[in-house]
Amino acid sequence: MSAIFNFQSLLTVILLLICTCAYIRSLAPSILDRNKTGLLGIFWKCARIGERKSPYVAVCCIVMAFSILFMQ
């Protein structure tokens, strides 16, 4: 089943996108900062969510990891 139709897989993909964008922005901020608008602006917005809401994102990652490892 595709990640689009499975809600748990969709949440996993979104969390991975947020964490990856925040990590890339911490290493090389110029890559994401030059594309703040348009289609590539999604990655900049994900990086901002990962930076500003990092405790909540971390808790969501832990809960998702627990559910994937022990609930399936």
Automatic annotation (TrEMBL):
Belongs to the KISH family. It comes from the Eukaryota. It is found in: Golgi apparatus membrane. Keywords: Golgi apparatus, Membrane, Signal, Transmembrane, Transmembrane helix. PANTHER family: PROTEIN KISH-A. The keyword Cytoplasm does not apply. One of its GO terms (cellular component) is Golgi membrane. The keyword Membrane applies. This is Protein kish. Involved in the early part of the secretory pathway.
